[in-house]
Specification:
elongated; four-stranded antiparallel sheet; 432 residues; alpha+beta
């Protein structure tokens, strides 16, 4: 059964990635059609075509390697003014000739290169922006539609004493737990502390902290009936931790502490939906973190390389390939989490992937969308400068002349992808 769940998790994330890629390309396709460009192909994946069909003037299809997608627009490169020269001239001239060989007279006003720069900008930003909003939507569904596992106000178990042995029994000299002394039972639910209604366990703790070392009056519900009890928690001195999980230190370098109440209860976990504003805020924060991660990508690649060859430990929060993503999805699916938590976790994973696609595609290098965006901005500035100072329009930029740079970026991306896949096979990241 575990292997079936593992495979289902992998299938779910593959389908989710394919849909994300499809929507990314749709973000390019729709504005391109709106601006009159003829779109020759709309493909999900690379390599040999598995299945294709034609709708109108566009061939839609699925290819064998599900690691991306593309739309093929007419007239990506302008007609050459003069043949390219130099080391890469053959590539450039052949690519231009191949790309323009099926252009007909009806395409005269339907070519990408001839669009105004702002239209090119809209088309090329359409894909990443689609991933951005899809990522926020998936995260919002996971956090606000389903919720996260949190401590509820209901008691799952009451421990008999303060000090518990490994087998669950009490030490001979251990005092009874405050909950057991007060008469709290499994199934009870806290509703108020010291007369103040509570909506979270943090509010229960805050209520006990107001009566440090003294009895507190608690209101509970038991089998639908209200109940009032007096409980005196045991207060233990605990270190204070920051958001990074490290203990906070004072000016002398001594760990800061605070007193926290101990009742001797195990709270029942519950999926609690997060307010939509907090979900969106989390998504925006994750987007910023993704941009920060991309800025450190060279260090991340080196860290993965080092761990693959046994020179260091694998960073559990480091870069992964699509293989690693599938492994994580499989582990989530076969975990002991409740079904709704598994669904929420997979949605969070797909949401994070979409935010990564958004951020990664904005890297200003061809053949990524960010490279075309940078080209459109440069063309706009160049044309404005020409009209103002040279009194003429210099025309559209010729991206065909940057093909050697695009090929170089492709080689780097392929190398990094192979390296990450090898790392995920040799030294995978696990949830354990």
């Amino acid at each position: 059964m575990d292997i079936v769940l593992y495979i289902l998790g992998i299938i779910a994330v593959i389908v989710g990635i394919a849909l994300s890629i499809g929507l990314h390309e749709l973000g390019h396709f729709l504005p391109a059609k709106r601006f009159g460009v003829r779109v020759k192909q709309f493909m999900i994946g690379f390599g040999p075509t598995v299945k294709s069909w034609r709708r109108g003037e566009t061939e839609f299809g699925i290819k064998a390697i599900p690691l991306g997608g593309y739309i093929l627009m007419t007239g990506m490169y302008p007609p050459e003014k003069k043949p390219a020269r130099g080391l890469f001239s053959k590539w450039i001239n052949e690519a231009r000739a191949l790309e323009r060989e099926d252009i007909s007279e009806s395409d005269a006003n339907r070519q990408f290169y001839a669009l105004a720069p702002y239209k090119k900008l809209i088309i090329m930003l359409g894909g990443p922006v689609m991933n951005f909003f899809l990522g926020l939507l998936l995260i919002a569904i996971a956090l606000s539609g389903i919720g996260t596992m949190q401590q509820s106000l209901s008691i799952q178990k009451v421990f008999a004493c303060v000090d518990i042995q490994e087998d669950g029994g009490c030490l001979s000299d251990s005092p009874l737990s405050p909950a057991a002394l007060a008469g709290i039972e499994a199934g009870d639910t806290f509703t108020a502390v010291n007369g103040n209604p509570v909506a979270s366990w943090q509010e229960v703790i805050a209520g006990f902290n107001q009566n440090l070392g003294s009895p507190s009056q608690v209101e509970l519900t038991r089998a639908g009936e209200k109940l009032e009890l007096s409980v005196t928690p045991v207060f233990l001195e605990r270190p204070i931790y920051g958001s990074d999980g490290k203990a906070l230190l004072d000016d002398q370098g001594v760990p800061q502490t605070e007193f926290k109440p101990l009742l001797g209860v195990l709270l029942e976990p519950k999926n609690i939906p997060m307010p939509i504003g907090e979900s969106l805020s989390y998504g925006l924060g994750a987007t910023g973190a993704t941009f920060g991660f991309i800025l450190t990508l060279p260090q991340q690649v080196w860290a993965v390389t080092s761990s693959t060859f046994g020179l260091s430990e694998r960073d559990q929060n480091g870069a992964v390939s699509i293989v690693g993503v599938g492994q994580i999805a499989g582990e989530l699916s076969q975990s002991e989490l409740p079904l709704e938590s598994k669904i929420a976790s997979l949605l969070m994973l797909l949401g994070a992937l979409n935010l990564a696609l958004f951020a990664f595609n904005l890297i200003p290098l061809l053949p990524l969308d960010g490279g075309h965006v940078l080209g459109a901005i440069y063309e706009s500035l160049k044309r404005r400068f020409g009209r103002v100072f040279l009194k003429k329009d210099p025309g559209p930029i010729d991206t065909a002349r940057t093909l050697h740079l695009a090929y170089g970026v492709w080689l780097v991306l392929i190398f990094v992808g192979v390296l990450l896949i090898m790392a995920d096979l040799v030294n995978p990241i696990t949830l354990g």
